[in-house]
From TrEMBL:
The lineage of its organism: Eukaryota, Sar, Alveolata, Dinophyceae, Suessiales. It comes from Symbiodinium necroappetens. This is Uncharacterized protein.
Length: 652
């Protein structure tokens, strides 16, 4: 009715508002507050008259009057409560008005209404930027520190949540002292304040520089105190429970199906936030911080929490990420973390628990790190069956996206690393199907995510196969897996037909898997450092101790030599290879590659194949093979004879 009568057009003009007395202004604020809660159309009609902009200009004197402030603040909160009014409220300078009233008023009611306005407005990005522009974020941080009434502090913390969750404002909050402000609430005896403080801290730690500030690694800003110990105190301890003998003596009717609580008193939400905070802090790969985690016993505490079955899935995934990150460190820290805890099984549980692909890849990356240490390699091999089950599950995945190739690169590299273990483990590897898995990696390497050759899968697979075939304890079993059926051997030989330039170019260009493996060695590497667009391919390949193509050729031909040298497997290999492919293969090894190892293995190929009379005549009729043999003999001379390298030796 008021709007139909044109009341809003009559009252909301500068001259009319300026002429109102303080009492009339109070009544007008109360009237607008009541009208704002009626209908969206009414609110839009009032806002079209630019009421907040006009009020601010007309009531310059009244804004200083403490009698008007409670009514005007309540009116602002009534409009801000409705999201359809946010845009107009911000455009009409409402944010500045609210912050001004909060700063000048000492009345808790006024300050509470102002905080509520900011809380309601912070839902959208446009309003957040307006609040930040008017220095409202600093005002909210100050309110958290200086207010004495719990309702004011709670609303100030809640208003800061959208800012802490935004990548745009996390840096500002960290530099403005938000880490100290939020961490201080860990000491609060009010659960609600503790929950809000830890949750806000968790969101701030999503930003790397804030993590460095919290850990004391940043040079630009330091925290006022060291809050890591306080964060750990919020984690509950795992109690042993009641001894079985005492429980048997009690005659109570308690239902045995009810889970017995084994954690000390804690709040589940605070526990979840604390675990996520610690997982985020572990992203900073700093040996000093990792050592401090271990000294505080954090790894043992999180390990017990994980197996207590009293935390949710998200917290469990954060615990697994913590262990995966901290194992990307020195041998000393790795030994301390793995002492007395089956961390390998914990890392391998990531896929079974349906954790994210990122978590699965980080766990495999951690396993690859510890597998480079001989003592820890044996620990990983003790879980070989679980590892092979995880590998087979990934290889059988229907969707081959970026995460698939990341995980495949890590799994292939891990198998290749394990193949370097002591010979006593090779039989177990062969029986677990490691050769078959490496052959599958070769098949999927032909077409990567964008159609490129997955060079990392080829290099890892041929190296692992060569190591297993050359084993003095279980080489025969691996050989049998390689030549039955014959298509497996043919698949391996097909790698010799890959052009050397294409292989080296693929290695220079980089793939998803190669970048993943680089992060294993250098966890702190940035995406910018992984790009080699400015690097000349020839210079890049020239700096490699061994060219990728030569590495693949060397291991493939070495594997063939080992197979042909075996008295039982040699004839099987000759049956698997068509005679028309024998001479070209030997010619390629003798003259098609500049690698010395490949050339030496080429002579061994000719010697082994020549034992077959039919193949011997083929070599005698091939001038290229005879000329290469004679040329090499002339270059070497009778005085340059050297002892023959053993087949089981290193392939470089």
């Amino acid at each position: 009715m008021l709007t139909a009568c044109g009341f809003h057009r009559h009252i909301f003009n500068y001259e009319r508002l300026e002429s109102l007395s303080i009492v009339s202004a109070i009544y007008l604020c109360d009237l607008c507050r009541q009208v704002a809660n009626t209908d969206a159309v009414v609110r839009a009609t009032l806002l079209e008259e630019m009421i907040f902009s006009v009020l601010t200009d007309a009531w310059v004197v009244y804004l200083e009057d403490p009698r008007l402030a409670p009514h005007l603040a309540l009116m602002c909160s009534a409009f801000c409560y409705h999201s359809d009014s946010h845009q107009e409220f911000v455009l009409q300078g409402g944010v500045r008005l609210v912050i001004q009233m909060y700063t000048k008023s000492k009345v808790e009611h006024v300050r509470l209404c102002c905080l509520l306005c900011l809380l309601y407005l912070a839902e959208t990005g446009h309003s957040q930027r307006s609040i930040a522009q008017e220095k409202g974020v600093k005002m909210l941080l100050t309110a958290c520190e200086n207010e004495t009434h719990i309702d004011l502090i709670v609303n100030a913390l809640k208003a800061l949540i959208p800012f802490a969750c935004s990548d745009e404002f996390r840096p500002q909050l960290g530099m403005d002292g938000g880490l100290d402000t939020f961490s201080a609430f860990m000491f609060s005896d009010q659960l609600q304040l503790q929950q809000l403080g830890v949750y806000l801290l968790q969101n701030l730690l999503e930003f790397r520089e804030n993590r460095r500030i919290f850990l004391g690694l940043s040079e630009e800003r330091k925290c006022e105190e060291d809050y890591l110990d306080s964060l750990l105190r919020l984690l509950p301890r795992v109690s042993t429970g009641q001894p079985n003998r005492i429980k048997a003596m009690k005659k109570d009717g308690k239902d045995k199906s009810d889970p017995e609580p084994i954690l000390t008193k804690h709040d589940p939400f605070v526990l979840r936030c604390c675990i996520h905070c610690i997982a985020l802090l572990s992203l900073e790969h700093h040996l000093g911080s990792f050592q401090r985690f271990v000294d505080l016993g954090l790894n043992k505490l999180l390990f017990d929490l994980f197996y207590s079955e009293q935390i949710d899935k998200s917290s469990g995934e954060a615990v697994v990420l913590f262990f995966a990150n901290i194992l990307h460190s020195s041998k000393q820290i790795q030994a301390q973390v793995m002492k007395g805890a089956d961390v390998v099984q914990l890392l391998l549980s990531a896929r079974d628990m349906l954790f994210s692909p990122h978590t699965v890849s980080r766990c495999l990356s951690a396993l690859l790190c510890i597998s480079r240490v001989p003592d820890f390699k044996r620990v990983v091999l003790s879980h070989l069956d679980l590892l092979m089950a995880d590998i087979n599950a990934n290889l059988n995945a229907e969707e081959r996206d970026e995460h698939f190739y990341q995980i495949a690169a890590l799994q292939c590299a891990l198998l290749s690393e394990l193949a370097r273990a002591s010979y006593e483990y090779h039989e177990r590897m062969a029986r677990a199907g490691m050769v078959e898995a490496l052959l599958v990696f070769i098949t999927i390497a032909g077409k990567g995510l964008h159609g490129e050759v997955c060079i990392e899968l080829l290099m890892g697979s041929v190296f692992g196969i060569a190591a297993l075939v050359g084993s003095p304890t279980s080489g025969e079993h691996s050989m049998a897996s390689l030549i039955f059926p014959a298509t497996r051997m043919q698949l391996l030989l097909s790698l010799l037909r890959l052009p050397q330039e294409d292989i080296n170019e693929a290695f220079h260009s980089g793939t998803v898997g190669l970048r993943t493996l680089q992060r294993v060695i250098y966890p702190n590497i940035t995406p910018e450092e992984l790009h080699v667009d400015q690097m000349d391919p020839l210079s890049f390949i020239g700096n490699c101790p061994i060219k990728p193509a030569n590495f693949i050729y060397r291991n493939v031909i070495r594997t063939m030599c080992l197979l042909l040298a075996h008295h039982e497997m040699g004839p099987r290999v000759q049956q698997a290879i068509t005679p028309s492919n024998v001479v070209p293969t030997c010619l390629f090894a003798l003259s098609g590659c500049e690698d010395t190892y490949v050339q030496v293995y080429g002579f061994l190929l000719v010697a082994n194949f020549s034992r077959d009379r039919s193949l011997l005549y083929n070599f005698l009729n091939e001038s290229g093979v005879i000329n290469e043999l004679l040329t090499t003999i002339r270059r070497a001379g009778p005085s340059a004879s050297q002892p023959e390298a053993p087949l089981g030796g290193s392939s470089g």
